[in-house]
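for the recovery benchmark. tokens below, seq after
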């Protein structure tokens, strides 16, 4: 069993690094922490909320915009060798990071592998924390990078990878999409059935409803495409707004996500929700991807979200 603690970072290629940096800082409200060659590192974590501050939570590099890698943090860094063996035994190729590769990921150690769909994952041991306070250029109210939507070419197979090989638990299903939790947060990874791999959307938690609504008007004023919301997900109780970023990546701000506390783990049962639009947003905001997914024969989620 691979005992994961949390999602740690994303590494993503971008076609235009300079404009992506500008978007990440001026629109999303991340802090540019470092630039190294053709890569940029961004921070997002408020210590008072997370209890720690990751050295970075998003790394963008000049390259293929479909090249996405998920960093995951282990509960016990001493497990790393055993994790490599578990993955290899299950037929997943494993690469132990070189010193140079570890430095580029701000960690003492890591191993690289893939989920069964082929999504690139990196499991880090003793990743670096920062003693410097997160100080963004735009006050979007961000508390921290919190979860991702991840495309899967076979949701049932990949659910087994995350829940049997790893310690993820299913919090709920929306149609064929499982919401997977690694700690108390209702979901850190949500799988979206598709014919492609990579990141479906990137979530940052914000402090409260005011931040969601302030950003909604800010995004509209800056001609940023709103994809879904403002609204509230009944599944996780989170209030959210989704919007389109560079390279057609979808970003989300949300607040108020449900937690499943340790004392609830033994009795918690995941719930199955249908893909009806009121299960995506109880306030009535509509996302065409929900409607399209409900009609698709295999509940495939379109790669390109259109409202
Ligand atoms: Fe989300």
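predicted aa per position
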């Amino acid at each position: 069993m691979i005992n994961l603690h949390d999602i740690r970072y994303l590494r993503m290629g971008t076609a235009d690094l300079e404009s992506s940096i500008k978007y990440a800082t001026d629109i999303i409200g991340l802090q540019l922490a470092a630039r190294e060659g053709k890569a940029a590192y961004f921070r997002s974590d408020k210590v008072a909320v997370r209890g720690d501050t990751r050295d970075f939570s998003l790394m963008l590099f000049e390259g293929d915009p479909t090249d996405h890698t998920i960093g995951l943090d282990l509960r016990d860094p001493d497990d790393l060798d055993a994790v490599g063996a578990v993955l290899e035994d299950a037929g997943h190729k494993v690469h132990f990071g070189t010193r140079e590769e570890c430095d580029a990921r701000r960690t003492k150690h890591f191993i690289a592998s893939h989920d069964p769909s082929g999504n690139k994952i990196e499991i880090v041991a003793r990743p670096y924390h920062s003693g410097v306070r997160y100080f963004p250029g735009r006050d979007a109210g961000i508390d921290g990078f919190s979860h991702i939507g991840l495309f899967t070419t076979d949701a049932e197979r990949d659910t087994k990878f995350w829940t049997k090989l790893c310690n993820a638990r299913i919090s709920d299903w929306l149609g064929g999409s499982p919401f997977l939790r690694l700690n108390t947060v209702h979901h850190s990874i949500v799988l979206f059935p598709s014919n492609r791999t990579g990141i479906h959307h990137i979530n940052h938690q914000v402090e409260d409803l005011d931040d969601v609504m302030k950003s909604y008007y800010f995004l509209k004023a800056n001609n940023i495409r709103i994809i879904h919301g403002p609204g509230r997900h009944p599944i996780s109780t989170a209030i959210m707004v989704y919007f389109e970023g560079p390279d057609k990546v979808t970003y989300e701000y949300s607040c108020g996500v449900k937690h499943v506390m340790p004392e609830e783990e033994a009795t918690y049962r995941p719930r199955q929700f249908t893909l009806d639009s009121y299960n995506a947003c109880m306030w009535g905001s509509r996302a065409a991807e929900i409607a399209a997914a409900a009609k698709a024969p295999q509940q495939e989620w379109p790669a390109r979200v259109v409202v």
